[in-house]
Each structure stands twice: as structure tokens, then as C-alpha cells.
Write the C-alpha cells for this entry.
Amino acid sequence: MKDPRRLLVLIAAVGLAGGFSAGCGGGSSSSTPANTNTITNSGSNVASISVNGGPLGNYDDASFTSVTVCLPGTTTCQTIDGILVDTGSSGLRILSSVLTLSLPQQKAANGNPVAECLPFVSGYTWGPVQTADMEIASEKASSLPIQVLSDTDFIAPASCTSSGISSDTLESLGANGILGVGLFAQDCGSYCEQVQTALGDFNPYYECASATATCQAVGESLTQQVQNPVALFSTDNTGVILEFPAVSGGEQASLSGSLVFGIGTESNNALGTATTYTANAAGNFSTTYNGTVDAASFIDSGSNGYFFPSTVTVCPSNSDAQDFYCPSSTENLSATTQGANGVTGTVSFSIANAEALFSVDDNAYGDLGGTFSSGSFDWGLPFFFGRNVYVGLQSTTNPNGYWAY
Amino acid sequence: MAALGGDVRSVQADQLHMQGTLRATAAASYSVQEIQSPAGTVVREYVSSAGKVFAIAWQGEWPPDMRQLLGNYFDQYAQAAKTQSGARIGRRPLVIEQPGLVVQMGGHPRSFKGRAYVPDLLPSGVAAEAIQ
């Protein structure tokens, strides 16, 4: 998936060393070549994205962009770079420590400020829900509820801190914020419209009477919830396309690409020949790898590798590549993805030795993968290299959104 | 009322805690108590024939109450999670594999899936793969 000549190489059936297998999963209706993508560089709906290590310069395989946030209805604005582009979540989250604007605070029905705890597997984000106008490229989302990440404005409740560790600082997040451009229009959806009263059930939204009060779970209407900004754009609101060239030579210090807003709304964002895989209500589709069906699979630019159950050799536990894969030589693999719409396709990918990759201080690693237990295949950022990936926002036609590639 | 490492009575405590419905199935050397909360979070607790909870698996829109489910193992989990996140910056599934505790959690907002077990408590002949 790195060499634009690969298709020719395959046709000629020569020189496969260091390449990838043609894919051995049979019976699929589609096979996606990963090496023929064209990057859209211009257009009022195109923002630059870069795999560049982020604000700390050491974030592996993550794409960053900048956004402008403004006091609603004004031209008092601040541009913030180092924002992680995440197709695995929805909503804009910004570190309080980088925000110089004093944004209006969202209030609950009882007048108290609303705060949110959003769990990610790598840690939760906590802080007040505030309102901003957000601009990126020539797109604008007005009166957008966002999350401001701060451990100090309000006290995170025990239900939040017991979900993991805090990601509310630059050191723990590795980014100045997260731009969630995933499948859904809100970060939570109908689950959050009312308080879940069973003690074991998590509540993302809270109202906090004061900085020292114990925050209480609160129901949050769909429009109050932290929103996917794309859903609030006036025209290019059907989803996004992430476009990256392939990584050359296995790894690069930086890799530039484009974040295109809208699908089928402009001359530069047509779906074209991409195959559509719809998601289920959980935002997942199915991946079959090595004979096993991983039903809770997903495509996530915010995951920094391919994470899946495999017999590929794991890196030593005492290395800084712990939990990544370390095969003695690059393994060329393939899997079958299947959407909720029943459409299937074969994806070829490779896993290189993570210790060897990390031994050179780069930021974009083409074949980075790691372990996870069974049942889930996480197609992280390497999947996006050399491939235009469409992330279709939920709609009447596709209520849970879709991926196309 | 901690679950992991606790005895079978803690399962009933968890059921009350989650206001859940309980469904039990039996395997050769252990039984599985499955609790589904009203909001759809599913927690499976694996109980050995000696009555000890040796493993837990979960799936739902959001993570379950880890403090409740991991009980005495929660602090070890929280410490290990901090250590993992410090190893290399990046967002990836949580994988904690220590001699006394294994915790794995993956997914994304609106879909979390994970499991935890104590290797020393696994009944003989039971592979970790059985915990789903």
C-alpha cells in the first residue's frame, strides 16, 4: 500500500518482496486498491491535515489540523493548532490551557453549568460544555456546543474518574484538542437524553452547582450535546473525506494530507467508485481476519495503529513498543470488512516491526499495529495512508453513518 | 461487594447495583453470570466452581463502573493504565498484562468492549480466550 507502481508490479507478478500479498480472502465483492488515491489540495471545503507528531512532536500516527473558535456571533476569535482529527468520536474538545477566549457556559434547566465526562479507551476527558462558533477551511458551525477540557473548573465525579485516567492536559492528551468528525451528529445520542439511574450505567453529562460541589448526572437533549461540527455546516454537512498519500520508505517525519468537508456536495468530494460500508447502531461494522469474525470493528483515525487479535509476535514487554507488534520481518496480511448493509470487501495491510519503526524518530509509520483481545478490529490511522476514506455522517438514508473507501 | 476476585455473592450485589437482569450459564469448571442493565450494558462474570469471580467481560455504549467491577484490583488497574499511557503518546486500546491482573479494553465513544481477569484464579484448563 505504499508504492504507486504496485498494481503494475502485481500485474507483472514480480518483485513482491517488501510488498504485500494480493489478499487471500475469497468471496468478496470488492477489493480496494490502496495506492491510487488522488489528494484534493484546493477548495473552500478543504483543510490541511498533517501527521507531524502534534504539539509535543512525539505522537505516533495521528493527524493534526487547526481550527478557529470565536465568541458566538462575533469576530473575536482564536486559531488553535495541534488539534487531533478523530473519526472515532464526534465533537470538538479543546484544552482549557490553550483557550484564551472566555466562551459562554451552557446551563442546565436548573441554571447550573453543564460539564461532561467523555470516556475514551485511553482515558477520559472532563470539563465544562461551552458554546463557540467554529471555523475551519471556509466552513462554519455556529453556536456549537463544545467540551473544554479542565480538571479544575469543576470536580470530576467518582463515576468519571473510575472510568480511567484523565486526558485533560497537553502531556496526557498529546494534542491541544480533538476534532471529532465521526459517524454521529452528537457525541452521545439518545442514551444521554435522560439520566441513567442504574448505578452501573455511565452518565456522560453532569450539572455542577459550583467549583467545589459534587456534580450530578443530568439529561442532555440532542441539540445541547457536544455536536459533530460537520453536522452544523450549512452545505458540506454530509460527512468528511480524509485523504493521505502513502507513506514512502516505511516511515516519514511528517505526512501531509487533506480533510475534505462534505460528500457529494461539491465537485471535489464525489463518492466516485468508493464502496460504501454502513455502520450499525454502535458505530461498528464487521471484520473477518484469520477466520475469526470481529463484530465490533471500526475505522478510527484517532487510533494510532491497526489493533486486532493476531498471532503476530508482540514486542517485548520491557520495550517502549510494548503492546505493538514486532514480527521479525514485515507480515503481509488481509482481512474482509463487511458493512451492516452486507457489502463486503478485502483489505490488504502489512504489519512491520514496531521497535524497528520507533528506532528512527519519525511520526508517520505506515505499517504500525498492536494487540487487542478478540472481537474488535480497530482500523487506525495507517489504514488511511494511501487511501481516501469517506466518513458519512448519519442521515435518514444511513441512520448510523457509513464508511466508504 | 467487589466483583473480580470476590465470591459469588458479589455477583448478586452487582446485579442489584446495575438494576440488571441476570442470566446464568454453566461450563465444565465454571459458570457465567450475565447481567444486562436497563441501558443495555452487558457484564459477564465468570465464577469458578469454588465460587470465586476470576474474570469479567463487558460490552456497552460506555464503560461499566470499573471501580465496582474490579473492586480490590481497581487501584492496580488505574496505576497500570497511567504507566501504559506514559510509554508512548498515542490513542490505542488499553492493554494491561501484569502477573496478577490482565485488563483489556477497546472501542470508541458509544461502543466499548473489554475484559479483565486474574491469571492465578483461572480454573485449570480454562483459556483466556474463553472470556468474552
